[in-house]
Amino acid sequence: MNRRDFLGTSLAAAVSLGASKPHWRFPTEPRKRLAVSSYPFRSVMQKIHAGGGEGSADGMTLEQFAATIAPKLGVPGIEPWSRHFKSTDPDYLRGLKSAFQKAGLHVVNIPVDIRVTLCGSATEREAGLADYHKWVDAAAMLGSPSIRVHLPHGEKGGDNSCAVESLKALAAYGESKSIVINVENDNPDTEQPERIVEVLKAVNSPFLRSLPDFCNSMAIHDDEQYNEKALSTLFPLAYNISHVKDLEQDENKVYRVNVERIFAVAKRAHYAGYFSMEWEGRGDPYEGTGKLIEASLKSLAVRS
Hints:
Layout: H1 3-7, H2 11-14, E1 34-37, H3 62-73, E2 77-79, H4 90-102, E3 106-107, E4 110-111, H5 122-142, E5 146-149, H6 161-176, E6 180-184, H7 193-203, E7 208-211, H8 224-234, E8 241-244, E9 247-249, E10 254-256, H9 259-268, E11 274-277, H10 285-303
Parallel strand pairs: 1-2, 1-11, 2-3, 4-5, 5-6, 6-7, 8-11
Antiparallel strand pairs: 9-10
Helix pairs in contact: 3-4, 5-6, 6-7, 7-8, 9-10
């Protein structure tokens, strides 16, 4: 699928998913549609995994972070990053669920960042799927509608067959637990919007969906028109979760987008799921996230 074909894809074609669908009910009140990702707070969170990553030994646990969301940010949703979990052990998850409920929160999605090889040997593929199954089970225990996984790198020459086969199997497991599997336009080298659309259409499962990130695709083409057209193809394939940000940055550049215009894209696609704040600036993550929440409420109030 070349760029012209991708940008010309009609909304009607984009939503050619299967007949049966997941049955989660989403709120319509603007504030209730908002959530906060723990990912932007990684510098102040407890460092769980040795060998890299931000955080410190005396940083906040997920339970402690959850307790700050309502008083400091005033939204009811949380999107806990997998690297902030101590484990996927059922006893731990039950305690975590209790802490979220005590804080008045519900989980909207779990972004899962683990090392798996789905396009290697058969043994590696089965091991990778088994690891993802643990997170599907965790989502079911926590009452999350979904998890987010990464699109496998695939074979050389643009062959997506192993990605399609692997994600079809994972979506089938998700369906057995009523959990949606989301794929995000995250890595600009392997998770281009064009490739996501191609793989999702090939799998053709209502339990494999897109997770549109407001700004990530700017790293592919530093062009707001391209970004908005890309999101116009991803939002019709989304189900329950989108990442809100007004900028993205790498070591070379800061990319910015018009948040209000992207909310308009979501509106045109009749997207009815949650919007999770994934602030990417420098400074106080509470302050930055708070500004994103205010911008989101303004856009949703105008377009509700």
